[in-house]
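User: For a benchmark we're assembling, each entry needs the component sequences followed by a predicted structure for the full assembly. Here are entry 17's components. Please fill in the structure.
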Amino acid sequence: VTQNPNLVTLDAIHAAAARIAPYVSETPIVPLTPTGIGLKAESLHPIGAFKIRGAFNALLGLGEDERRRGVVAHSSGNHAQAVAYAAKKLGIQCTIVMPDNSSRVKLEATRYWGADVRLVKAAMRASTCERLARERDLVIIEPFNSLAIMAGTGTIGLEILKQCPDARFVTAPVSGGGLIGGLSAAIAQSNPVIQVIGVEPELANDAQRSFRAGRLVALSPDETGRTIADGLRVPQLGELPFANIKVFVRDIVTVTEDEIRQAMRRITAEARLIAEPSGAVALAGALKLGLEREKTVAILSGGNVEAGLYASIIGA
Amino acid sequence: VTQNPNLVTLDAIHAAAARIAPYVSETPIVPLTPTGIGLKAESLHPIGAFKIRGAFNALLGLGEDERRRGVVAHSSGNHAQAVAYAAKKLGIQCTIVMPDNSSRVKLEATRYWGADVRLVKAAMRASTCERLARERDLVIIEPFNSLAIMAGTGTIGLEILKQCPDARFVTAPVSGGGLIGGLSAAIAQSNPVIQVIGVEPELANDAQRSFRAGRLVALSPDETGRTIADGLRVPQLGELPFANIKVFVRDIVTVTEDEIRQAMRRITAEARLIAEPSGAVALAGALKLGLEREKTVAILSGGNVEAGLYASIIGA
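Assistant: Structure for entry 17:
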């Protein structure tokens, strides 16, 4: 029995799986033909990203009173869409604070799902979210620094254990750590033979630095903003994800921008799936580690990419 | 009990489902958010197309002696890859005759799976296949005019009935008719409330003409060669598929080249899937018929498209 209250328990992950099942479909593991790597296609959710799992688990965990008050979140992208979508399905009022440099497709999708979107300067997103929560008595839905979110993302791990029980490696992108925190907790506590490895852009390697230093290391938003992987620009891991990463993750490696683009091209040609740049990072890491012939699952975390950018990368 | 020996029986389709199950994974139905349309993602098979179903069912139905002799097929694309892939997995010698104007990705993939590829002028493909079969005692694997192939494609219908039992419409592309022949036989004989509708490019509408005339009508390869949908250029339905289409299909409609390109863009943006032009035709038809708000499944038949062509379409 785990004593550290910051760790995500298997019980919490199994409870999340049961709770979100009516709303979230299992995603397939699609072979990257002809390698031994499978892509866990989280891009195939209705909002095109894994964030739907944590959002539903968090919203379904609210009490009646909290649901009536409504929710608020800040996000540049997939968390925004996920909370908006889940709130709409559950009939909860939803406000989303988005930085004014958010990707257009993510902004439009968030509006589509009926959220009250507030555009602010990037530096103001957290403070605006807190102010709105205070003034309007809204419940803040954290993007990653939350046990409820990580229990939700942990359900990806349960599905992998069922779909590909003989996996040897699982690679996942790292941003705030909500994805890999829950995922690694699910896998390491169920089958410690499987190694969970985090992957970051070289240009936004705060998690790798933190992992190696054993304490949280932050980059500046100007630094992390350099990577094409717009979903991985969070400049520092959350404390709760970091607690889980330290215990359950084997290592964190980095990839170059060119390796990210090349992984996007291979996902297109060899799996007929669409990855946003952040969504291709886990495959880029698996390829860099030479895992093509190993039984490996790379998390394709999302597929929300502007058509023009995507076309320019795959047509290159 | 069906008396017409040209019709695909439900028994044959259920037998095919059991036979191919160890080799062919179920494909998901991915929502085209935010419409009511789901895409049956046949692009997610290891060879990127539905043809894997018929190929495995045909090869698994061969006797020991036939397996030892080896197989030959002619195809410009997805059938070639499918037969090559299935033969490799089953340890059967495989020769594929391909027209010298075949798509490069399909040619390379067919070679990758170990087939002995013979490139010939397009007009010579059938005769070369027959000559090789005669000279080298090979078993010909028909691309569509075969009950074994249609029983294999019928398994798509069984999966739809299970995954989306409240579907009202199913749309599918029509080329030689092997896909829609088996699919419609499975669905119409299980739940006749569901309407199966074929979709063709306007520029290759031989099946629509045949359907309306009640007899086979052929176009010339020069005519059907005009469409971007390279998988749908077969100039005439097979006789066996036509027999099933006449009984089990509700109607056949056509779409323009622009509508095909637009459907490819929507599949990219709203479902994060990749469709080759032929693979987007069924969605184009569903959209043209105004089925966005109906419970509809459109068959995304394949995702094998040259990166440059795909980029030029989705970036437009």
